[in-house]
Amino acid sequence: MNALARLVSSRALIRVCRIALGLVLLGAALAKVGNPAAFATQIHHFHAFPVAPEPLLAVTLPWIELLTGLALITGLRARAGAWLGLAMLVVFTLAVAQAMARGLNFECGCFGNSDATRVGVKKLLENIALLAVAATAARRI
Amino acid sequence: MTAELARAREPGAGGTLRGALLILAAGIVLGVAWNALGLASRPPYGLAWIARPPAPAAPSVPETPHPIELAAFKQLYDADGALIVDARATPQYEDGHIAGAISLPFNGAPADPERVRRLDSGGRPIVVYCLSPTCELSKDLARFLVESGRRRVLVFEGGLREWEAAGFSIVRGPAAGSRP
Description:
The structure holds two protein chains of two kinds. By secondary structure, chain A is mainly alpha-helical.
């Protein structure tokens, strides 16, 4: 247990997790920034938010992801970026889980238009793995 | 000592919260500014700020897609009386689709209006399907086709699952395949 605690607290692991999370968020953001209309449709498929503000979410979320990714990769406000990334992943995971629970069947679009991964167990497990990375990245070096 | 010095450089909870709020605020400002520029450009590439509410029924509103049940769909299919369109992504289409159906993934359709314009139903209705009743792609694509000016667009909500369960013909691969 001590060895595990030491590993999770190691600066090298935290830095690796920050960069990995940053790259994932950056990739997701760049795939969505140029096509807010398609992203708004994807958000609508989750049926998790009121309809009227969906365009605002579609327009701002990719930019928040982009800046968070840059913060993590450059190390500038990296811990803040890690906590923001963790919060976003919690929301995304809950959105996927509630869509699954309601039996909704659609393509996630989490990484833009070309992302054909369907909302399901695989997507949920991917998100949980990313949550673990984000939780490590959020630790204080 | 080195770890303590490193720890001293990283901000505490207050500094981390301020940093997170700063990133959040900057993201919102950039997103709003980018979209405002998009709305002002010609042609506009921005997104309308508020989602349009469902249009009330009125003579000037274009027709909405209608659902079609399996039996009626099969009659149309046997008579070659409709253009069948699969709304799923290409890999799912190639894994198995209704024989004779063409692929028009919904996720690519809005970005490729030319492909939608070239869709030739030969005057027949268009029947759109995806995997199952809980799949939204067929309804989204059907709505998009109607908004693009297509008439007589039907949605086979049972999808490929219901078609296959009834024992009807499925083909695999990129080609549409021919109806039996």
